[in-house]
């Protein structure tokens, strides 16, 4: 599968639209490449996807809960323009928080990636068929899921796949975010996509993230 390439015009448009005042209206992604996986890796990824634990945050002390609630309130305000329904917004943010931390990822970076990938559109589809918030290529549902790509439009399923896949790429790249993000986009080694995610992530920075 040919990686999705950005033209100079795409990059300029992307840089102009990463601020919250001007949301991107295209989908960049869908460049994840299907690669052979060792049976142990496939099994671990499948297990991570299959775990059906609900995205309900649990806290060991009051301060951690208060920090989460401060973050949730701030992110809800920032996302209001894109998701006007309060409960939809809260459910989405709670799931992003849960799934990113479950996968050991930086929640701020995940939100930046979602902004670049889909502009927070649940039913976004790229020109090569990637689906949903985190633009998951359908082959992943066959490789580590139940084989039903339509489920990639389910909010939690999409976010779980995206976070597990990004964690897998980080592990493959020994923690190198730049290379892992490039691999997620199918443009490993190129700067455009990682830089776009880094820039978008600044919109979601918060001291309690």
Order of helices and strands: HHHHHHHHH
Q: How many E-type strands? A: 0
Which CATH C-level class of the domain at 59-204 is it?
A: Mainly Alpha
**Class computed from helices, strands and strand pairing:** mainly alpha
What's the main sheet like? none
| Uncertain stretches | 1-27
CATH architecture of the domain at 59-204: Orthogonal Bundle
Find the CATH topology of the domain at 59-204.
Lysozyme
Form type? globular
Q: Specify the number of helices.
A: 9
Helical amount among residues, as a percent range?
40-55%
Query: Span between N and C termini?
Result: 36 Å
* Radius of gyration, in angstroms, nearest whole number: 16 Å
Strand content: under 5%
Structure characterization notes:
The protein contains 9 helices and no strands. With about 210 residues, the protein is mainly alpha-helical. The chain has a domain at about 60-205: Lysozyme (Orthogonal Bundle). Mean pLDDT is about 85; it is low at about 1-25.
What labels would you give this structure?
209 residues, mainly alpha, Lysozyme, 53% helix, disordered N terminus
Question: Summary?
Answer:
The protein has 209 residues and is mainly α. It has helices at residues 8-16, 39-50, 62-79, 86-102, 107-118, 139-143, 155-172, 177-185, 192-201.
Strand and helix map with partners:
Elements: H1 8-16, H2 39-50, H3 62-79, H4 86-102, H5 107-118, H6 139-143, H7 155-172, H8 177-185, H9 192-201
Helix pairs in contact: 3-4, 4-7, 5-9, 7-8, 8-9
């Amino acid at each position: 599968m040919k990686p999705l390439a950005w033209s100079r015009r795409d990059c300029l448009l992307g840089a102009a639209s990463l601020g919250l005042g001007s949301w991107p209206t295209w989908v960049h992604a869908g460049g994840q490449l299907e690669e052979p996986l060792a049976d142990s890796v496939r099994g671990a990824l499948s297990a991570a996807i299959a775990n059906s634990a609900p995205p309900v945050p649990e806290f060991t002390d009051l301060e951690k809960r208060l920090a989460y609630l401060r973050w949730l309130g701030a992110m809800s305000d920032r996302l209001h323009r894109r998701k006007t329904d309060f409960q939809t917004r809260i459910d989405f943010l709670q799931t992003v928080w849960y799934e990113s931390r479950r996968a050991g990822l930086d929640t701020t970076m995940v939100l930046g990636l979602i902004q670049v990938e889909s502009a927070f559109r649940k039913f976004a589809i790229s020109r090569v068929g990637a689906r949903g918030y985190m633009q998951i290529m359908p082959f992943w549902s066959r490789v580590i899921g139940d084989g039903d790509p339509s489920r990639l439009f389910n909010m939690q399923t999409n976010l779980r796949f995206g976070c597990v896949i990004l964690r897998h790429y980080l592990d493959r790249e020994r923690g190198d975010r730049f290379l892992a993000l490039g691999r997620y986009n199918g443009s490993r080694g190129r700067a455009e996509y990682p830089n776009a995610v880094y820039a978008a992530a600044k919109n979601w920075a918060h001291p309690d993230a």
